[in-house]
Amino acid sequence: MNKQSISKLKLFFMGLKERSQTNKDFFKSIEVIYKSGLKEFKGFVTIENDKYKINFKGTTNYYTFDELLEYILKESENYESIKFKYIERGTIILIQGDNKGVNIKYLEDDQKEIDTYTASQIKNRNYYVKVGPANDVLKEIGILTKEGKIKNDKIRKYNQIDHFVELIDKLIKELENKDTITILDCACGKSYLSFVLNYYIKEVLKKNCYFIGIDYSDNVINASKKMAENLGYKNMKFIKEDLNHYIPDTDIDIVISLHACDTATDMALGLGVRCEAKAIIVVPCCHKELLNQYKYDILEPILKHGVFKARFADLITDGLRSLLLEAYGYDVSVVEYISPLDTPKNLMIRAVKKKNENKKALDEYYNLKKMFNVDPSFEKLVYKIVE
Predict the structure, then answer these.
(1) pLDDT tens digits, residue range 67-119?
(2) Fold for domain 116-381?
(3) SS3 for 175?
(4) Is the CA virtual torsion 96, 97, 98, 102 positive or negative?
């Protein structure tokens, strides 16, 4: 290649240097193909021990990113053309050059075809996390078979996960001024939701993101670490820790918790308020704490029936949680996350920090707390009270 084309190639490479630092966790590989006449010479680059390893013409060398680009530029002098692919999660940057000039293109990552059965199962919904592009993550969390076919017993789970993404999609997009969105998954379990959100934010919305999963079980933390390794999701950290003791070492944008049992949901809410998260999204599970605490004599003729007493305890629990979030300056909405036919534990509490503390909401909270003679854990887990 002539000096003019190599100089232009060098300019494009300069733009990649900053990206290589900002997006290092999302890097997958580099493919480079030199051509002279009809002969092609291929090189392949991966990261190993924080160095870029290139296999080219039967030899292997390790470089920093700057050194790697210098090496590729120097080799370009010996060939008529170059095709350079910088591949990261969700994006391919293609740089092509010859003696006539150099150009750059941004491509979507390769998409897989959908089999006929899977297409028939999902035809009635416009999915946010689509079979095909999202096959790798959907296979890892068990929605798809190794062959890419949707499992008969997983379509409902797939719909639930995708609907969660739909319900917080707008919220994620509103954080457009953030270079990296940090999400804390409380009582994460095997972190299926975090993996799907990781895929969606980075590879669909093209936003950088970082995930922290907290759980008290060694087994689920180890399982989550293994899944992240299998997927090449380097922007995730999983920690065995008590939610009441965890102190984040970075700013948290969104706290999520899906079906954390009983007061584990309160622990997630308390942590979200303590770390001043911009948003908190929880889907509570069983509600035991207030069931044997509350008493409301005027409704005793109804509450003498156990099923009514349990359902009213659920209502009080989530109602007081929502009201206390309002007291801490969050705008709160409560929606049905999925159909009650799938599970009766189908309410989602969405809280977005919008203002300072709300004294009126706090007074209402204390009045109701006194009326029902209850002492919810959430209030104690925040470690501060609105004055």
Answers:
(1) 999 999 999 999 999 999 999 998 999 999 999 999 999 987 655 556 555 65
(2) Rossmann fold (3.40.50)
(3) coil
(4) positive
